[in-house]
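hey so i finally got around to running both of the ones u sent me last week. sorry it took forever, my laptop kept dying halfway thru and i had to restart like 3 times lol. anyway pasting them below in the order u listed, first the sequence line then the structure token line for each. didnt double check formatting much so if smth looks off just lmk and ill redo it

first one:
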Amino acid sequence: MDDMRDDVFGVWRVGWSGRLMGYVLAVGPACGALFAWLGVLSHPGAQSVGSAGTATAVALGFGLFAWWVLLRVRLELARDVIVMVNPWGTQRLPWSRVSAVSLGNWGAQFHTRDGFTYSAYALSGLASGARQDERFVDVLRTVDVQLHSGQPL
């Protein structure tokens, strides 16, 4: 691919609708907390400060949730390794272990020669609210080249 940088030749994230939801989940409560703190300026008092503090804690919780579950999730195809950043952890899978790839309910599934399956949640229809067939075709094309060439891209 033309946009290869640092040996990474493909990065896929949660679909646009999932990312939009993540930003709404992060920014909406943050705006509420900002307005609560602006209210403290016009009506200082312990109750106003307490409410603003609570709004800030809620905004932080929503922001961290949105980042962890939707905004940081990605699939990176690099020269030597596949990196799957999922909400439940990050897996690094060497190309030499991969035997096949398919699209499942939880995203792109990388099948290994020893029978294990690793899922990349970034291509999950559940994460974006839409089927990921079109995006999966790009991943599949890149994986096929890597698996069948016998040498790095």
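and the second one:
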Amino acid sequence: MATAMEPRRREDEVEQLLVQLDRDFAAVYGPDPTTWSRGVRGEFLETLRHHRTLDRETHPLHPRKASAGRRRRHLRQLAWRVHQIVPGAVKVLLTPVWTDLHGPMERVFVVTARDAHGQHLKLPRGGSRQLAALMQGAFPTASWDQPQTWNAATNQLTTWRGTAGTNRSQGGPA
């Protein structure tokens, strides 16, 4: 009887890498990290953090899991929640930007809100992060690697293709 080989999982590779790193530091500096110099401990901990965060982009620590009822409630309350952050917002454009200011590459969102007259609305401090989290919670199946536009009148999220392309609608959660 033949058995299928399971492919090696990314978590196993990261764990194996961390174990090997621990062995290497222990072989050079001794088994007790409290006796290591401050610089060596700092380098060791920074290396551990770096290897752990490489895996977090594809496997977040706390993935967003919500029941269908909670997702429907998020969708119903979305317009109210957006107006709590940016009063008068009719359209919200979320653009993903990859940056490496604080170490490994991470995705952040640049958010622009417009009123009914097309005027740019100023976001409060932390508003981009809050709006991105709200939209991701209400539309978990949307492609967040592409710019998305939310329309308050229809409560729909569409993939933004610029002025030359057409927008595709992303359905809400079931």
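quick thing i noticed on the 2nd:
Strands lie at 91-99, 106-114, 120-121, 148-151, 156-159, 168-170.
anyway thats it, ttyl
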